[in-house]
Write a structure and sequence with these properties.
heterodimer; A: alpha/beta; FAD/NAD(P)-binding domain; Arc Repressor Mutant, subunit A; 3 domains; five-stranded parallel sheet; globular; B: about 100 residues; Ubiquitin-like (UB roll); five-stranded mixed sheet; about 5% helix
């Protein structure tokens, strides 16, 4: 098997990963960058396909920040080895990762590892949410901004958070028939976010362009409303909406049916913590934000020596916050490898530490306003599917909980988290069900992960070895 | 087989010449750079697999949820949202009869 020996590895090429790689590259550290996409950018700055002749025709305005980062990365890339279309699927010894790229496996041995896994969407299911035609908000948005296709028929969006407003604006701009946007948070709480935006005025133009798009298209936008259920045969056909009280619980008798063809759902983002768990970083449940996140310090160091976790994968903060985190992690990793003095480190990083502190106010406001309330989880009726892959319904999990089972592992006999996505979708939902049922805090623990942490073909294990491109053999 | 309404390709993108892929034997148009999921949605096909009578289609669109697993050129369990189209690609929807052993 081919082994690549290198000083530092950055996994994930979103804003945090690009920023970390830029700082490592600038310091002359030999660094490998591993990313699943053909081009750097992550999800937020995902580049439309190279094959489209005018890809920028659909890219959102935010994309310019991504282009600047990509340029900066290209300029500092002399000591960087870029592995695109590659995924880390295992880590079997300290300081080593197993990577799958183009049908073959290679080992990467490192001294420092910067994990920038990004976020995934937080979903609160309701009956019928697994029907075809129902997409996550981010998934629907990427269909438009990255693939250039717009949903036909009547589109309905429901959930909460900036992604709901952003996706609504993108759907409206694409000329789709937007039947309504339903934000679970009440109007007054939503508007209190304005104070947070003031602390980060760079967001004002973006927020304003979203709002003006929705106003000019006369989009129906309702606060304190949510989905009760979705129904259909081979695809979604109808949505039942319900008014929500201040605790997020449905108000009986307020239900309303709407015919739909495409539905977008989502309650914001949560860290995507896979590789960090695999390499043994300590992960804790965050009770105020309601998700699992790796424990990190001010330099983004995890509980594992030499391993950093930066960006949304360490706690959701958005693209600008993630870039600041990535810079700080990259600078610290480069400093500790090059044994430079401490003053230099604090000098180089002070700009990013200050930016992160400013953003913290806005990030906290976002979580305060949009973190789901317990009432929102009452959309999960007993017959609601919790695990999409294995079709495990809430009633099966509740039966186990009523038998006294109080942690995720004990729910696995239902086949929860046993399907191909390995619990990416259902782990967070089942955790909230446990919490709402009164499970003691110390029992809220993330599932144990085993490699391969991404789906991969068995044929990859049978390939002959080949030298790694871009490295001396 | 066709289930309307389909997703619409935005006219401002210059996608070049179309190519053809086959979904369950039916030829549908696609363009270089598109994913299998994009070509299918644009043809009005929303179902990628059926799990014990429960239809599933593309959901997260970033390769995490595994709801769009299909059989592509004979390989089972490939994510339609992460697979780029190429001329003559043969795709089958999957049927998973029941859950695994307990």
């Amino acid at each position: 098997m081919t082994t690549l020996r290198i000083q530092a590895v950055v996994v994930g090429m979103g804003p945090a990963g690009m920023a970390a790689a830029i700082e490592l590259g600038r310091a002359g550290v030999r660094t490998a960058l591993i990313d699943q996409a053909p081009l750097p950018g992550g999800q937020v700055y995902r580049h439309p396909p190279k094959e489209f002749r005018n890809p920028h025709a659909i890219a959102p305005s935010r994309h310019r920040t991504g282009d600047l980062l990509r340029q900066e990365l290209a300029q500092s890339a002399t000591s960087l080895t870029i592995l695109n279309d590659a995924v880390v699927w295992g880590g079997f010894a300290p300081g080593a990762l197993s990577v799958h790229q183009a049908g073959r496996i290679l080992e990467v041995a490192y001294e420092k590892l910067v994990i920038c896994e990004g976020a995934q969407e937080r979903i609160i299911p309701c009956p019928g949410w697994t029907l075809p035609g129902v997409l996550s908000l981010g998934g629907l948005q990427k269909m438009i901004t990255s693939q250039g296709i717009a949903p036909g028929g009547r589109v309905l969006l429901a959930g909460s958070g900036p992604l709901l407003v952003g996706t609504a604006a993108v759907v409206a701009r694409a000329g789709a028939d937007l039947a309504g946007v339903y934000e679970a948070v009440p109007f007054t709480r939503f508007m209190s976010l304005g104070i947070g935006v003031m602390a980060w005025p760079q967001l004002l133009p973006e927020s304003f362009s979203y709002m003006s798009e929705l106003v000019s298209k006369r989009v129906k936008f309702r606060f304190a409303w949510g989905l009760r259920s979705l129904s259909g045969d081979d695809r979604v056909r109808e949505a039942t909406l319900v008014a929500l009280d201040n605790a997020g619980a449905p108000i009986p008798g307020s239900e309303r049916n709407v015919p739909v063809d495409v539905v977008g759902i989502g309650f914001g983002l949560q860290p995507h913590v896979r590789l960090a768990r695999l390499v043994g970083c300590r992960t804790e449940y965050d009770f105020s934000r309601r998700y699992f996140a790796p424990v990190t310090d001010n330099w983004c160091r995890s509980s594992q020596p030499g391993v950093y976790v930066a960006g949304d994968g360490a706690g959701v903060g958005g693209a600008d916050w993630s870039e600041a985190q990535g810079r700080i992690a990259g600078l610290h990793a480069a400093w500790s490898l090059n044994r430079r003095d401490c003053d230099q480190l604090s000098g180089f990083s002070s700009e990013w530490v200050r930016l992160r502190r400013r953003l913290q106010f806005y990030v906290s406001a976002l979580h305060r306003v949009f973190t789901p309330k317990d009432g929102h989880y009452s959309a999960i009726t007993p017959d609601t599917v919790v695990c999409r892959c294995e079709g495990v319904r809430a009633a099966e999990l509740m039966a186990r909980m009523n038998m006294g089972e109080q942690d995720l592992t004990a729910l696995k006999p239902t086949r929860l988290a046993m399907g191909p996505c390995q619990g990416r979708g259902c782990e967070g939902i089942a955790t909230e069900l446990l919490r709402v049922q009164g499970t003691p805090p110390e029992n809220l623990k993330a599932l144990h992960l085993r490699p391969p942490i991404v789906p991969m073909p068995l044929s990859a294990f049978a390939q002959p070895t080949e030298p790694v491109p871009g490295t001396p053999t | 087989m066709k289930e309307t309404p389909e997703f619409k390709r935005l006219g401002k993108i210059d996608r070049g010449k179309s190519l053809q892929i086959k979904v369950d034997g039916e030829a549908i148009p696609a363009f270089a750079g598109e994913t299998v999921a994009t070509a299918m949605l644009s043809a009005g096909l929303v179902r990628c697999q059926t799990h014990a009578d429960r239809p599933l289609g593309v959901f997260c669109n970033i390769g995490q949820c595994c709801s769009c697993l299909m059989t592509i050129n004979g390989v089972s369990g490939v994510r339609a949202c992460q697979t780029q189209v190429s001329p003559g690609l043969e795709i089958q929807t999957r049927n998973v009869q029941k859950r695994g052993p307990r």
